[in-house]
Design brief:
- This protein is an alpha/beta fold.
- It has one domain: Protein tyrosine phosphatase superfamily (Protein-Tyrosine Phosphatase, Chain A).
- The chain is about 40% helix and about 10% strand.
- It has a six-stranded mixed sheet with strand order 1-5-4-6-3-2, with helices on both faces.
- The longest helix is centred in the middle third of the chain and has 14 residues.
- The N and C termini lie far apart (about 50 Å).
C-alpha cells in the first residue's frame, strides 16, 4: 500500500458550507482530558485529543511518529510551512511508516473561518487515527476552536476545546473572530 502525500495551499471554503458536528461535545472532551503533565507514557499522552482518535499538538519527532503509528495513527496533518524547521524530513518519515501526510500550511496570520473549515474537512476525510500539528499546537488550537464554534459550540466551549488542542497566544485573535461572527447580522 502506498502512502498518500498531499500538499494543499490555503483553502478558502464558503462560509455557508455545512460543517459536520465535531465527534464529541467540547465540554465532555475537556472534562475527559488527561492531565497535562502525563507525558512520560505513550506518545498519545503527549498530544491532546480534541476529538476521539484525533490527536493535536506541537511538532512530533521521528520517535513520536513511530510510536503513534504503532498506536493506530495513520494520517498526519501538518499545519507548518515547508520553510519552518521540522527537525527532520517528516513527509519522508511518514512515507517510510506507511502513513498519509497532508500539508495544510497555516501561518499565524492565516487563522480564519475558511481555514478552520479546510481543517475540519480534512478531519472528516481522514477521521480517527489522525495527528494534526503545528510547531506548538497554537495554530491547531486556533483552527479547532473556530471549527467548533462554526458547528454550534458556544464561545466558551470552543475556546476551551481550542486550549485543549494547544491554543495559547492566538486566543485573542480567535476570540475577536468569534465575537465578530456573533455580532454580525444574520442574512
Amino acid at each position: 500500500m502506498r502512502p498518500h502525500l498531499i500538499t494543499l495551499a490555503l483553502v478558502a471554503v464558503s462560509p455557508l458550507h455545512a460543517m459536520a458536528a465535531p465527534p464529541a461535545d467540547a465540554a465532555d472532551r475537556i472534562a475527559a482530558a488527561p492531565a497535562a503533565e502525563d507525558t512520560r507514557s505513550a506518545p498519545a499522552a503527549k498530544f491532546a485529543q480534541p476529538y476521539d482518535g484525533v490527536y493535536a499538538g506541537g511538532q512530533p519527532d521521528a520517535r513520536d511518529l513511530a510510536q503513534l503509528h504503532a498506536q493506530g495513527v495513520r494520517t498526519l496533518i501538518d499545519l507548518r510551512a515547508t520553510s519552518e524547521d521540522h527537525g527532520f524530513d517528516e513527509a519522508a518519515e511518514a512515507a517510510r511508516l506507511g502513513m498519509a501526510y497532508v500539508s495544510l500550511p497555516i501561518g499565524k496570520d492565516d487563522i480564519s473561518a475558511g481555514n478552520a473549515d479546510a481543517l475540519q474537512a480534512l478531519l472528516r476525510q481522514y477521521g480517527e487515527g489522525t495527528l494534526v500539528h503545528c510547531a506548538s499546537g497554537n495554530r491547531v488550537g486556533a483552527l479547532i476552536a473556530l471549527g467548533a464554534a462554526r458547528t454550534g459550540a458556544s464561545r466558551e466551549d470552543a475556546l476551551a476545546l481550542g486550549r485543549l488542542a494547544g491554543l495559547k497566544s492566538l486566543e485573542p485573535v480567535v476570540a475577536a473572530q468569534l465575537d465578530a461572527a456573533t455580532a454580525a447580522p444574520s442574512k
